[in-house]
What does this fold into?
Amino acid sequence: MKKLLGKLILKIVGWKVVLQGDVNSLDRCILVVAPHTHNSEYLLGNLAYWSLGKPLKIIIKDAHTKAWYGSVVKSLGGVGIDRSQKNDLVNFVAKQFEKDDFSLVITPEGTRSWVPKWRKGFYHMAMAAKVPIVLAAGDFKRKTMFLGYTISYEKLSTLPYEEIMQEIEDYYVKYDITPKIPANWNPDITGSQQAGS
It folds into this structure.
């Protein structure tokens, strides 16, 4: 049902999904979604996943999963966590992957506002869970969701962190992604340009 609904809604709003890798890599990965400048980017990403029939999860405040509408949130992939506690998110995520196969959405910018560089949590989660990093990007100029570029766990465990980040940065520069709110997107995800200026 979700698959048909996802395809239908994307068609109605005029968006398309461009798959850039093996669709099976979406079964079990850390899904890096960027740019993250507006909530609509997440909604479109969800529809893209639905259209491909793949499982998607996102970590949210457990207040949402415990609320009266919690069952709906969980059915849409919400995984609740108590952020008031000093939770070890990296190990929490690794344990979730021990239980099930899914893509976990991470927005490394951490906010919809402009940031000087990305947070590193997504990388450490992938390493701890021994899963690949898959990249996703919503381009509002072309109305296209790019999805599936994969950095394997083998590559993650072989190359230095800096090289992985450079590969990711090069990806977003190459596809010249136009987010919903361009002023909130900083393609210099490592902060190297600011540091060198």
About this structure: Residues 140 and 180 are 6 Å apart (CA to CA). The radius of gyration is 16 Å. The mean pLDDT is 89. Strands lie at 16-19, 29-33, 56-61, 78-81, 103-106, 133-139, 144-151.
